[in-house]
Task: structure prediction
Amino acid sequence: MPKQVDHESRRRQIAEAVCQLADESGLEGVTLRDVAARAQVSMGAVQRCFGTKEEMLVFALGHVGEQVAGRLSARLTASPAQSARTALGHAASEVSLVQEERRAEARVWLAFAAQAAVSPSLAEILRSNYADLHKVFAQLITEGCDTPDPERAARTLLALADGLTTHVLIGHLSPTAALDVLDGHLNQLWNERAS
Result:
């Protein structure tokens, strides 16, 4: 009897290989041959899972987004009694990817963001991911802050967290300095509530 292959598990295995290669040399370093070798599957297996390289990249980007969203959700539900302020701080620091243990993920995320500028299908996934993050930020800001425009505050915070990732990756800011900038912005947001 032929060996049964879990199609979704194989697709995730390939997505992990894409991310490892993207971390090492950007998306230009992601070839079907190299992905197959890294995933330890045949090129035929990669082609059976994904009709095109673009389809493979779209799935891999979705996989990265799911990992970030899963971590964010776990962080927010780990302490259900935390204040909106604490939850927002956790969410923003998780999204910023400035911690040393998130450096590889940050490089992969930015490689996809750069490619999304010329790939409508990747851009669509990023827009969806950002929209989901924006909703989380806006909800937490609404719950814990009297700012007149929580939607705008959420957009600002998301852009700041995302931008800090780039600044840390290129060495403009240290992770500590980036987290200090993020904390300063959050303190300013909460101090608006007190005034």
User: Anything to note?
Assistant: Residues 53-78 form the longest helix (26 residues). Residues 151 and 173 are 27 Å apart (CA to CA). The chain has a mean pLDDT of 92. The radius of gyration is 19 Å.
